[in-house]
Write a structure and sequence with these properties.
single chain; mainly alpha; three-stranded antiparallel sheet
């Protein structure tokens, strides 16, 4: 009975995977490596024999060139899938470019408005605003300073340069 139990434990210990991950670290696991790990990075597979790539590199002379692997031919369905994938990526890039252009245009408009308002504020003329009740109020020095500070922040963020 003890012999059977120890044989089962040894079998479980032999069912280990060993591979080198993308960071160059050795990984030991009971489960197979992720799909992205290439066969040449798998050092040990479950069972007694090491991975085929490891035995080939250990037995191969140093002067031989690495073997080239044949790329499987894609069937029509895969080619259609690739074409659709490329088309979707192109559409996504066009959409992103249009959105970036829209944002850049809005920032340019905000920049121009802020510069015009800053010129008006710096001119020193009396400026009237409308309060929440709809009543007309003349800006005092404190409100003028706060508006100048707000306009400077807009100019700095939307114009990309300092106050001009």
């Amino acid at each position: 009975m003890l012999l059977v139990a120890s044989a089962l434990c040894c079998t479980a210990a032999l069912a280990q995977w060993q591979w080198v991950d993308s960071a160059g670290r050795k990984v030991f696991s009971d489960t197979p490596p992720p799909v992205g790990v290439s066969d040449k990075n798998i050092l040990k597979r479950p069972g007694l024999a090491p991975a085929p790539a490891a035995t080939e590199t250990a037995n191969a002379p140093a002067t031989t060139a690495p073997a080239t692997t044949a790329v499987p031919k894609l069937n029509d369905r895969d080619e259609q899938l690739e074409a659709r994938k490329k088309q979707a990526e192109a559409e996504e890039q066009a959409k992103k470019k249009a959105e970036d252009e829209k944002v850049a245009k809005a920032r340019q408009d905000n920049c121009e408005r802020a510069k015009r308002n800053k010129i008006t504020m710096d001119s020193g003329i009396r400026i009237a605003t409308t309060n929440a009740k709809g009543e007309r109020e003349i800006m005092d020095d404190k409100a003028r300073a706060a508006e100048n500070q707000r306009l400077n922040a807009i100019i700095q963020s939307d114009c990309g340069a300092g106050i001009q």
